[in-house]
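Forum > Structural Biology > Help requests

Title: Can anyone predict the 3D structure of Carbohydrate ABC transporter permease?

Hi all, first post here. I have the sequence for Carbohydrate ABC transporter permease but no way to get a structure on my laptop. I'd be grateful if someone could post the structure tokens.
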Amino acid sequence: MGSYRKKSEKFFKMKKIYPKQKEFIFLLIKGAIIILGTLAVLVPFIYLFLNSIKPEFEFLSVPPKLFPSRIMTKYYSSLLASGSETLKFLFNSLLVTGATTILAVFGGALAAYSLSHLRVSPKTISIIIFSILLVRFYPKITTVIPYFILMKKFHLLDTLISIIIAHVSITVPFVVLLMMSFFREIPPSIEESAKLDGCNVWQVFCKIVLPLSSPGLATSAVLTAIISWNEFLIASSLASVNAKTLPIAVSSFITDKGILWGPMSAMTTLIVIPIVLFTLLLQKYLVRGLTLGAVK
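Reply #1:
Sure, ran it for you. Structure tokens for Carbohydrate ABC transporter permease below:
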């Protein structure tokens, strides 16, 4: 970014562009990048929604049609009908995501607070952080068989508890790394003042540290919820009938007779809505958390 700015400044000097013109050009470039990024995010979702209201014969039409010739809502009505299992899958996803988010954020915050107050050498902290990162780096496919064997021994296959345990294990390291940066920014004098006023460690953590770290908690909650809500690989290996979540239900539309594009597009659209609403609800804290946590 720095080299790009230097080159652009040289260009402006060569062309004798005035400061106001230069500022306008920078704003124009920035706006174009924002618009392109927004389109890259929204266009796939818009296309997905249009597919969910298309007639069946238009999915594989040549040339392909972007807009449906007529709007059909039968895919949504069939998914949300009284005899459909979609609401059951939705409840399973909400329960798994909610429990995973609460356990991972609270447990990860406790671990991060402990690690941020360790009086050890920087080398030891680096080893601990590397160990935490190692859990995030290895492919999830390598954990599927061990998780399956463990849950089978504990008789937890096809239960929501098994999926929650798996999701917590893959999201806690992320929460720990994120929250450590927030806890290190809190001045030690604030905690010392609370202790002088009679607060114990638990009271300092709950009444002082957590409120000051609310942007980080919100950021961790949103990103943890997104990971858990969209996770498919481990959940599909642990759930067969009773504990199916929405991502697993979407894969059931791929059959030996073909792909049911309409129902798949409709269910995928429904999957996106809850997590978007949750993100919008915590948007204010999410922006603050992503910026404050990166400042040293």
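Residues 19-52 form the longest helix (34 residues). The chain has two domains: 2-52, 76-292.
Shout if anything looks off.
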